[in-house]
């Protein structure tokens, strides 16, 4: 029997509104919903049936019987597996204290109700362990999003990046700097940019590579990766020295301008050209264009996060936007009103007396997220510093493909006393787990999804595959066994009841309108720093320690960092490593998104694999010719840290001397070529942004040769 249901795509947290077509209870097709907001379909969405019904799905709880890493498990029932998890956690607490148990949530833990009930705000780390007594809650925020979304905007404007909305529709110039909405799932921003372009709005893209979005731009500014800080400071120098900035704004609303003016003098057009590869004339023209155009908007993201000065670079770019009069104005970077809390989340209280790991090494990270920096996990497990970690609960993450130098992480996982993995598939991490629990796809779950000004209900359209469960109820079961089950909903009715406790009428309306319901949108108010709308005390200004937009940040200073948005040349790079550069002459970037994968995911889905069967390194024709490499050749990529095999994609989309390497490979279910191609074998565990602790995933040095 064929049926059509209106729902939300359940492959990833993108939340795209779709129509699902089922045949005898099997999902056979999904299509974007027509004429409702937030209805899109990314390339991967079309393959939803293959993901959901993949023969590789985990079907039952598993308990390890072999050695760690060996992959020998026996099937267990849910109660046995969950009891074992709780018993092991309590035994470790008894022996070492609660802080010895750590959690890590990844890119598979972003479902809306998961985030809401886990008390997650800006750092995505589930708070399950706080009532247990451990402060060691961590997440992929240890290497994604918070540099751009929390640290840079909080230290500059006193608000989070979630509230900084590019106003594409009303702008006269769109600058995309270190983001590629063209490959991103979900494709909502991409659609908005394309529509704005159709209206004739100009777009400039600043990227080390001619990405999808760069190829559609009016101008592509090719910058050496990791050197954007110097470019931003160089633009600021032109704008300041040529008096092109908003003087009234500067004098009334900022601190640290004088110091900035002195600091940027070193960033002359010549210096910027030598540092970034952007020609002097382009630096001058770009500065004058941004300052001379009214209503310039900005889209940026991870492209600026992974250098030795990621947080400071993003700050420099934000400051550039503010000084040119583009903050909180129509067509600029709009400051959204804070979201009204949707429902009363459980009150998770930070345990007293013990700091999470990484709090001393990364004080700003701890101060602004309250979480552990997971990059410090191996040290805590392997060396017991600052104290031993003995157990890890890992949900929706693939640590061994995502973090730099997997052998270090593997050693740590091997040494644990207990490890839990919750996933939809058997990951490499799971091979080291004591207990593996099967998670549903969101097609199998009851939930809801909020969008700006819109809301949808997620109604299950399929029975759970095998014995898979919604992650949230797995958390609820663990919490129940630890004595605080009331923090989580224990069944689907309770989930909706609790989530909509403040808005039962909205739930009733959503049940009538599965395609979605519009929410009231507050009227836009601009230049809110003038009217007291940015501060809780209602005074004009910004919600920072000084009350001003902090070009020189008090918070950074207090945490021991330079208060100005200073540039730091890459610690490993063509300008700073005369010893390494001759042997490793190519600048290596990793991890620009591709359509067919989501980080390590979907490299076992035949339809998606067909789109790009092999892991690629993008290399310029001249560099390829120098090495006798042709398109499709197998090549070896080598860094100081390791060597792996990839396939050459010879293309002028990358600049000469630069390569871009796909990430996500390195897990057991993947196609063999990908399974052996873990980009993080090449990256560096110790080379980090000192503020965020994020690893430097771009701008490292490598050599490439044709494989024998
Ligand atoms: N070299 C290099 N490394 C990088 C990056 C880079 O650019 N270069 N990018 C970094 C970035 S931005 C990120 S975010 C991290 C990604 O880091 P991860 O969080 O490890 O992301 P994924 O590889 O997507 O792994 C997510 C896992 O969650 C599982 N999953 C999916 N949905 C669900 C669900 O509903 N429930 C459960 N329980 N599991 C689910 C998937 O099967 C998969 O195993 O990688 C980082 N690593
Ligand atoms: N299909 C798909 N969608 C995804 C993901 C996925 O794996 N697949 N991952 C999701 C995740 S985890 C995240 S965090 C978001 C990220 O979303 P984005 O930040 O938009 O990520 P990318 O698409 O990699 O775009 C980053 C761009 O920055 C450029 N870049 C890299 N280094 C530099 C640099 O030093 N300077 C400049 N100027 N540019 C640089 C890259 O070439 C690339 O074009 O995407 C999400 N969406
Ligand atoms: S971004 Fe793609 S996979 Fe994710 S929800 Fe949307 S259509 Fe589905
Ligand atoms: Mo990410």
Structure commentary:
By secondary structure, the protein is an alpha/beta fold. It has 4 domains: 2-52, ADC-like domains (N-terminal domain of TfIIb), CATH 2.20.25; 62-142 and 357-442 and 463-490, Rossmann fold, CATH 3.40.50; 165-333, Dimethylsulfoxide Reductase, domain 2, CATH 3.40.228; 586-706, Barwin-like endoglucanases. The chain is 28% helix and 18% strand. It has 23 helices and 27 strands. A hairpin with a 2-residue loop joins strand 18 (447-451) and strand 19. Helix 4 (146-157) packs across helix 12 (310-323), helix 7 (228-241) packs parallel to helix 12 (310-323) and helix 14 (377-383) packs across helix 16 (406-415). The longest helix is centred in the N-terminal third of the chain and has 19 residues, at 78-96. The protein is globular, with a radius of gyration of 25 Å. The termini are far apart. The relative contact order is 0.15.
Reconstruct the topology from this structure:
Layout: E1 2-8, E2 17-23, E3 26-32, H1 48-52, E4 62-64, E5 73-75, H2 78-96, E6 101-105, H3 112-117, E7 137-139, H4 146-157, E8 164-166, E9 173-177, H5 188-198, E10 202-207, H6 212-215, E11 219-222, H7 228-241, H8 247-253, E12 254-255, H9 257-264, H10 269-276, H11 280-292, E13 296-300, H12 310-323, E14 333-335, H13 363-369, H14 377-383, E15 391-395, H15 399-402, H16 406-415, E16 418-423, E17 435-438, E18 447-451, E19 454-458, H17 471-481, H18 492-499, H19 504-512, E20 517-518, E21 549-550, H20 554-558, E22 586-590, H21 606-611, E23 616-619, H22 621-626, E24 634-639, E25 642-650, E26 658-661, H23 672-675, E27 700-706
Parallel strand pairs: 6-7, 6-15, 9-10, 9-13, 10-11, 12-21, 15-16, 16-17, 22-26, 23-25
Antiparallel strand pairs: 1-2, 2-3, 4-5, 4-17, 8-14, 18-19, 19-20, 22-27, 23-26, 24-25, 24-27
């Amino acid at each position: 029997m064929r049926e059509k249901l209106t729902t939300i795509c359940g492959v990833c947290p993108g939340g795209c509104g779709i129509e699902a077509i089922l045949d005898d209870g099997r999902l056979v097709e999904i299509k974007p919903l027509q004429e409702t907001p937030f209805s899109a379909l990314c390339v991967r969405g079309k393959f939803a049936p293959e993901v959901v019904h993949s023969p590789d799905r985990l079907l039952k709880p598993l308990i390890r019987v072999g050695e760690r890493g060996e992959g020998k498990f026996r099937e267990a029932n849910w109660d046995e597996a969950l009891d074992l998890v709780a018993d092991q956690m309590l035994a470790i607490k008894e022996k070492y204290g609660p802080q010895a148990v750590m959690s890590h949530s990844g890119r598979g833990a972003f479902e809306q109700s998961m985030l809401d009930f886990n008390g997650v705000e800006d750092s995505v780390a589930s708070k399950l362990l706080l009532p247990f007594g451990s402060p060691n809650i961590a997440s992929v925020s240890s290497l994604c999003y918070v540099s751009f979304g929390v640290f840079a905007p909080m230290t500059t404007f006193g608000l989070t990046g979630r509230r900084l909305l590019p106003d594409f529709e009303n702008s006269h110039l769109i600058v995309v700097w270190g983001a590629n909405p063209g490959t991103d799932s979900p494709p909502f921003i991409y659609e908005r940019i394309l529509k704005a372009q159709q209206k004739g709005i100009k777009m400039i893209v600043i990227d080390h590579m001619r990405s999808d979005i760069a190829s559609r731009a009016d101008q592509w500014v090719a910058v050496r990766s990791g050197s954007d800080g110097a470019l931003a400071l160089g633009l600021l120098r032109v704008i300041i020295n040529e008096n092109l900035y908003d003087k009234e704004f500067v004098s009334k609303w900022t601190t640290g301008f004088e110091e900035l003016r002195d600091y940027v003098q070193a960033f002359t057009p010549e210096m910027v050209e030598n540092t970034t590869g952007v020609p002097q004339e382009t630096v001058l023209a770009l500065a004058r264009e941004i300052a001379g155009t009214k209503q310039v908007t900005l889209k940026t993201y991870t492209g600026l996060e992974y250098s030795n000065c990621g947080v400071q670079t993003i700050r420099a770019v934000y400051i550039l936007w503010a000084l040119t009069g583009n903050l909180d104005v129509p067509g600029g970077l709009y400051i959204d009103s804070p979201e009204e809390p949707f429902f009363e989340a459980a009150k998770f209280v930070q345990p007293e007396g013990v700091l999470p790991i990484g709090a001393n090494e990364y004080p700003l990270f701890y101060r602004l997220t309250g979480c552990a920096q997971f990059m410090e996990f191996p040290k805590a497990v392997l060396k017991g510093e600052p104290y031993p970690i003995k157990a890890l609960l890992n949900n929706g993450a693939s640590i061994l493909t995502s973090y730099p130098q997997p052998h270090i992480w593997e050693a740590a996982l091997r040494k644990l006393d207990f490890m839990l993995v919750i996933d939809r598939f058997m990951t490499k991490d799971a091979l080291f787990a004591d207990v593996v629990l099967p998670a549903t796809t969101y097609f199998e779950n009851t939930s809801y999804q909020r969008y700006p000004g819109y809301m949808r209900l997620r109604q299950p359209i399929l029975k759970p595959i095998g014995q898979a469960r919604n992650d949230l109820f797995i958390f609820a079961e663990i919490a129940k066994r630890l004595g605080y089950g009331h923090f989580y909903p224990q069944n689907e009715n309770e989930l909706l009841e609790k989530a909509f406790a403040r808005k039962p009428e909205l739930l009733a309306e959503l049940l009538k309108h599965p395609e979605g319901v519009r929410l009231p949108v507050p009227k836009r108010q601009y230049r809110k720093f003038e009217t007291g709308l940015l501060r809780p005390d209602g005074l004009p200004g910004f919600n920072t320690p000084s009350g001003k937009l902090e070009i020189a940040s008090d918070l950074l200073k207090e945490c021991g960092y330079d208060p100005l948005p200073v540039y730091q040349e890459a610690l490993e790079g063509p300008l700073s490593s005369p010893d390494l550069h001759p042997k490793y002459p190519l600048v290596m970037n990793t991890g620009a998104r591709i359509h067919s994968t989501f980080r390590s995911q979907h490299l076992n889905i035949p339809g998606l694999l067909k789109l790009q069967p092999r892991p690629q390194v993008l290399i310029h024709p001249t560099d390829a010719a120098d090495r006798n490499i042709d398109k499709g050749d197998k090549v070896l990529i080598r860094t100081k840290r390791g060597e792996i095999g990839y396939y050459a994609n010879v293309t002028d989309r990358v600049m000469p001397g630069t390569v871009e390497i796909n990430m996500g490979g390195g897990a057991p279910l993947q196609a063999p070529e990908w399974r052996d191609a873990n980009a993080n074998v090449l990256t560096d565990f110790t080379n980090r942004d000192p503020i965020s602790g994020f690893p430097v995933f771009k701008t490292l040095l490598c050599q490439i040769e044709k494989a024998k």
